[in-house]
Amino acid sequence: RRSSSTVRTESCPCLLGIVLFCLIFFAFRRGVHHCTPSFISFHYVFLLVFVLILVHAGGGHINHSIFWKNLCSPKEGGGVLEDGALKNEINATFGSLENLQTKLNTASAGVQGSGWGWLGFDPTSKSLKIATCANQDPLQATTGLVPLFGIDVWEHAYYLQYKNVRPDYLKAIWGVVNWKDVEARFLKAQA
């Protein structure tokens, strides 16, 4: 069995946001070189607010785009992990699918407030990892892991059905995992 680790990113800033901020910052800096100080200050504040909004909305879009494709009804094969490269890697890394579920559920339940639990692929070590991200921070931008399967642990994802009992939601979500999508992401990440 390979060792697995959990990556926590609650205090890790979104790298995508930093890159976008730097690009826009230097474009503004160059363009307002001959302007008054108050004009420049206003634009820098505007720029910072814009980037923060963009990071939040962009991260939410990225995470939810993956999340919805990661799910399907049991009638369409949801919850069934078939034999293949992903199942072999899960067994090699975590010992079994049940062990993966326990570890990812534990990590996801531990997210304080809003966030995400993830099964990701580490391109450096070529291994599966469990990670969490606070708020809407996208996995790859904050950890370098390629997202394979994400669990939305914001209350809006489960409150109507599970109230504030996040562990019940985490147990139930495994019955609707679209493992074909997760495996396709895994194979693409390995390539």
Automatic annotation (TrEMBL):
Belongs to the iron/manganese superoxide dismutase family. The chain crosses the membrane at residues 12-28, 40-59. It is an enzyme of class 1 (oxidoreductase). The keyword Transmembrane applies. It catalyses: 2 superoxide + 2 H(+) = H2O2 + O2. This is superoxide dismutase. It comes from Palpitomonas bilix. Its EC number is 1.15.1.1. The keyword ATP-binding does not apply. SUPFAM superfamilies: Fe,Mn superoxide dismutase (SOD), C-terminal domain. One of its GO terms (cellular component) is mitochondrion. GO terms for molecular function: manganese ion binding; superoxide dismutase activity. Residues 83-185 form the Manganese/iron superoxide dismutase C-terminal domain. InterPro entries: Fe/Mn_Superoxide_Dismutase, Mn/Fe_SOD, Mn/Fe_SOD_BS, Mn/Fe_SOD_C, SOD_C_sf. It holds the Pfam family Sod_Fe_C. PANTHER family: SUPEROXIDE DISMUTASE 2, SUPEROXIDE DISMUTASE [MN], MITOCHONDRIAL.
